[in-house]
Amino acid sequence: MCHFNLIREPWIPCVAADGEPIELSLRELFAQATAIRGVTGDIPQQVMPMLRIALAVLYGAYADRRGDCDEMCELWMEVWESDGFDMARIDAYLSRYEDRFDLLDERRPFFQTPDLQYTAKDVDPLEAIIADVPKADRTLFSMRSGSGVASVSFAEAARWLAFVQAYDTAGIKSPVVGNTHVTNSKVYAPKGAVGTGWLGAIGGIFVEGDNLFQTLVLNWVLYDPSTGDDADVLLGRDGDEAPWQKDDAPTTDMVLQGSFHGVVDALTLQARRVRLVVDEEHGRVTGCVVCYGDIVRAYDNNRSEQMTAWYLSANQAKKLGRNNGNEPMMPRTHIASRNLWRGLAPVLQASGGRHRELRPGVIGWLEEMQRYAGWRSDEHLLGQVTLHAQGMTYGTQSSIFDASVDDSLRIDSVMFRHDYDGVKVLLEVIDKTEESVRTLADFVRNLHIASGQCTNSQAARDDVVEMAYAQMDAMFRDRIARFTEDRDAELYGKRWQDDVHRSLLAMAQRYLDQSPAQAFGVHIPDNRGGKGSPMTSGRALLELRGALNGILGAIAVSETVSDDNKLEGDDNGQ
């Protein structure tokens, strides 16, 4: 009988502090956390599931330290300031459940259901759990050759197992022996519940520090920061257990769980019943069996899931028949075509109680900890951190992968303060930029009108918008990273808006330069029966300038270069 214990065997790809790639066991991950820059994977979307497994271990190892909110703050600071994990505590916890981390154990294989088998077919090939195997209906960019993969190592299989539990597609599944939710020899996701893996249903976001130790502790939320109530302490909650802590092996049946038992349950939800098929002679995984497992609803799980933003949904309330204003909290999912900085509002805006928006718990928690440590001290608890968003988007009733999401953004931790004026300034710049980019699209449409071309192509407008954002992406990442507390927020924002203004005018000039000769004549829009106002390229440019001045204000600083346009290392002014 083969064995592959994830506590002892290397399976987690990492980047060391010196930039060298290494592969570590779960125990080594904690022991060397301060010397590891971060976790990697076969695809980026494996990172978050592996980090969440490590976080579940951290919650379990300190579960006996449960107390009130003040005690949780003290515990977090104790661990943070130790600059390294208490390996005696971590080892004691891992040793207690060591046999449950064996990927190939006969009775309790890690993240799997033993003896799982289909009722009417043989096992699936590995492409059922490996996202980057090229195939016609579920293809991501792949470094693999051929149309499939015959086998993978135990280490790689463990990573894809974590991935499939987090991100698997929905749609029709083949029934397994013991599944009582079979219709016409098929198994469907329950209506109104999450059909994909849990991380596929949320806009997953986590915070990265300077090393893996910092990253894990920064995302270790010990009580619900949206309430700050002792009743909402997350650590050591009764009934909140990881799969390896449970006495009984998972049933082969689908379980309509509904809500999470706590944060650990959310981090390690077994959304799928899985069994890996092993070729013991060659020490490889060659196939798999996959069906629906523990199913939760998407809404009102904000007290347990801390790695996504939430919002109150009137539409979902109607679907649920809630007519008394009791709107459910829904996770705010990713839009794959948008860079992370374009969606910062729900991440940074803090709202108390049952407001329409709720920022991710990991963000609110870091404000809590910095407030606890003393915001106005000369040396802050945190400096800059990295926000990292990951996820998958789906198509055709969530039965196929449509796109992947992986974006990160360097940001000063002062932006997590709900009372910091710079947050409002930053979000206003992003909002005004969005409105301004739409005026650029209007300008390009007017150039088309001036040249007698079709004027109503949404695809053409989308192309202009996306091109504009792509050209300003580096500017926004730089400005956000350098927006620190020592800046004059209003002046910094104004200079930033001026640079956006210049960039859009430069883009407009390029569109004008590329216009055909007809655009410099006079044309009347044909969508008003010939009664519209005549359009020329000059009028289009005049309207654009007026609209940009109205949104962004007139450019107030030198046309050459603003202080904040200087490269890092220059003498940056306020």
Q: How does this model look, in words?
A:
This protein starts with 11 loop residues before the first strand and ends in a 22-residue tail after the last helix. The chain has helices at 26-31, 47-61, 69-82, 87-96, 154-167, 212-218, 263-267, 314-319, 345-348, 361-373, 421-450, 458-481, 489-513, 537-552, and strands at residues 12-16, 21-24, 36-39, 205-208, 255-258, 272-279, 284-292, 294-296, 310-312, 329-331, 357-358, 384-395, 400-412. By secondary structure, it is of the alpha+beta class. Helix 11 (421-450) runs antiparallel to helix 12, helix 11 packs parallel to helix 13 and helix 11 packs antiparallel against helix 14 (537-552). The strands form 5 sheets. It has a 3-stranded antiparallel sheet with strand order 2-1-3. It has a 3-stranded antiparallel sheet with strand order 4-12-13. The protein has a 3-stranded antiparallel sheet with strand order 10-9-11, with no helix packed on it. The model is unreliable at 136-141 and 559-574 (pLDDT under 50). It is built from 14 helices and 13 strands.
Q: What string, H for helix and E for strand, traces the elements in order? A: EEHEHHHHEHEHEEEEHEHEHEEHHHH
Task: Give the N-terminus to C-terminus distance in angstroms.
Answer: 67 Å
Helical stretch tally: 14
Into which percent range does the helicity of residues fall? 25-40%
- Give the beta-strand count: 13
Unreliable residue stretches: 136-141, 559-574
Shape: globular
Main sheet record: 3 strands, antiparallel
